[in-house]
Specification:
9-stranded antiparallel beta sheet, Dna Ligase, domain 1, binds adenosine-5'-diphosphate, binds magnesium ion, 29% strand, D-amino Acid Aminotransferase, Chain A, domain 1, 381 residues
Length: 381
């Protein structure tokens, strides 16, 4: 399929990733169509054509697909049967629907790494809490372990660290993994186009919020030995090749205390761990996704400046119509770039925006990011 900058691109999902993708596409005036439940969602302001509807519904996705040449996603949990029907009719879908089906199910995803000799921890599949309970009683399974819902988890919502009988089990089809002794969590975003060219962004390091299981600060470049960066990058490239998908793939890793580099999970779309590329890299992750799905030359991923990204999460004590406090103070500091997603309602720990802090010195960027986190509050009216 030959694409050009007039190719009509449909995006399933109208959240912040769709918004930032559409803003990148707007630089080249590529027509973007988005599908999500409400035009008031983040991408609503950034796309020329917004269809209100459910991207999990077969007919809605199928109809939406009729008006575009190429489809992509900003979320995995979409109706892949409709996407397969569209592919059968000659539409292009990146990432391919059969690969989306693997990725959106953590059980299939883990099995994929084992089949392709890609490093990840061991795992077992269980049908529900009762089955996990039975495995504990019969000593097939022992504490501690990590339980993950196979589908529909996000931002740590479908993940339970189970250390003893006091910890609650998730009651859903799930996988069980060993609790990994993590030195650092790392991520590499790689891109691949139809010509098979592969390009990686610089390795990032994710520092997690202690209770919300969400990334709190993200540092680029990651502060790790060179060989760790080289190895993670090499595994990320092998992973996108094994999946044989076009577009970008964010690969999350655990660098363990023992020195192993294990794949945790992937996302075949723009990712939280690549927000900083908007300001810090020659090419942003959003532009790279666009280049990759249109089979254009991939852009240089060179880092222009070290960067720290902080997610702006809804304050734990507030729920309702959003209000931002501390914007003036934060903007007065050097290198502070604020991105607000335009979500009308805040709730505890909801991702409402992010801030990227640029500085020649990564440690200084982190100090400023911590200050921003203190001062910039997402509360309610
Ligand atoms: N096996 C594990 N051992 C230790 N910590 C884990 C393990 N799996 C997940 N975690 C922690 O939980 C976080 C969320 O898990 P993840 O599988 O990435 O779910 P999500 O889809 O919500 O991002 C990880 O980033 C990590 O901090
Ligand atoms: Mg994750």
């Amino acid at each position: 399929m030959n694409f050009d900058l007039t190719t009509k691109i449909g995006v399933l999902g109208g959240g912040q990733l769709g918004k930032m993708f559409a803003l990148a596409a707007a630089d080249w005036h590529v027509p973007i169509y988005a599908l999500d439940k409400s035009k008031s969602f983040p991408a609503g302001v950034a796309v020329q054509h917004f269809t209100e509807g459910d991207f999990k519904d077969y007919d809605t996705v199928y109809q939406f697909g009729q008006q575009v040449d190429l489809l992509t996603v900003e979320i995995e949990h979409v109706n892949t049967d409709a996407l397969k029907a569209l592919v059968a009719e000659g539409k292009t879908v990146h990432p391919a629907p059969d690969k989306l089906e693997i990725i959106k199910d953590k059980g299939l995803q883990k099995a994929f790494y084992h089949q392709h000799d890609l490093p990840t921890s061991s795992f077992q599949i269980y049908s529900d809490a009762a089955a996990v309970q039975k495995a504990i009683v019969t000593e097939v399974l022992s504490y501690p372990f990590v339980q993950k819902a196979r589908t529909a988890g996000y931002d740590g919502q479908g993940v339970a660290v189970v250390r003893s009988a006091d910890d609650k089990l998730l009651d859903a089809p799930c996988i069980i993994e060993p609790l990994v002794d993590i030195e650092k969590e790392l991520a590499v975003i790689v891109a691949r186009n139809e010509n098979g060219k592969v390009q990686a962004f610089p390795l990032v390091e994710m520092a997690f919020h202690p209770t919300a299981n969400l990334v709190e600060f993200l540092l680029c470049p990651a502060n790790v030995p060179d060989e760790v960066a080289v190895k993670a990058t090499e595994i990320a490239k092998r992973t996108i090749q094994a999946y044989d998908i076009c577009g970008i793939l964010a690969v999350e890793f655990f660098w363990t205390k023992k020195g192993e580099i294990l794949i945790n999970e992937v996302a075949p779309r723009p990712h939280n761990s690549g927000h900083h590329t908007i300001e810090s890299c020659y090419t942003t992750q959003y532009e790279q996704h666009l280049r990759a799905i249109l089979n254009l030359p991939l852009g240089s991923t060179r880092l222009k400046s070290p960067a720290v990204m902080v997610n702006l999460l809804g304050h734990p004590d507030y729920k309702g119509n959003v209000r931002y406090e501390g914007v003036q103070y934060s903007l007065a500091m050097e290198g502070v770039k604020i991105h607000l997603y335009g979500k009308e309602q805040t709730k505890p720990f909801r991702k409402m925006g992010h801030v990227t802090v640029l500085n020649d010195d990564l440690a200084t960027a982190l100090t400023i990011a911590k200050e921003v986190k203190e001062q910039l509050k997402v509360i309610a009216k």
